[in-house]
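To whoever is covering the structure queue this week,

Two jobs came back overnight. Logging them here so there's a record in the thread.

Job A:
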Amino acid sequence: LDAAQALVQTRMLRIALERASMVVGAIRSYARSDPGEEARPVDLAESLRAAMALLYATMKRGVAVRMEAEEGIQVLGREDRLAQVWTNIIVNALDAMEYRGELLVRSGRA
């Protein structure tokens, strides 16, 4: 293994670890669901990234996915409920696209 190959493999490993970390975080968010939990500020971009991480395996079947999320936007809500909303919206979009083409997920201030 030469230095260039080692660098490429290291980058690929870092990307895989980041993805795995996102999936674990998203699963934890679902698992912590508490019906009595109060609404609180939730980072919108992070919430979308978590939902997309859970759906990554589903989306890679022929769909190019692009996300443009404005950073720093906080919304008042429950993290687990927002993740469910994003998941439903993304799955509905994928179904409508018949899992082909490009899906753009964009968030920002109106």
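Job B:
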Amino acid sequence: AYTHIYNLMRARILKKLTPQMTQKAVQRLRGGEDLLPSHIDLAKIEMDLVQATRREYVLEDVLAPLIAHYDAVLIDCQPSLLRLGKPSSALLRAAISFASFWFKPGSSTR
């Protein structure tokens, strides 16, 4: 099942990713935040990316179906995962180090 970010990234690499898979993997927490869970297997993603087409867009492609639903996205990931995005991507500039993906729906900083 596609229940965490590694499986979704792997599905994208294998050209099997659908927006529904990503949306289904998001979990609602008690505080109202949404979480796209990580997994220890995420440490293997760099090896998997060797076979990926457009590897620098894998993370962006996984998150694309979700981004429009959120005012703020916090990406907490291992530093090497930052290389998976375009340097100009605001999404990846927000990243810090470790391994999970948090979303707060409808929040606004205004």
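Note for Job B: The chain has five helices and five strands.

Please reply-all if you pick these up so we don't duplicate work.
Q.
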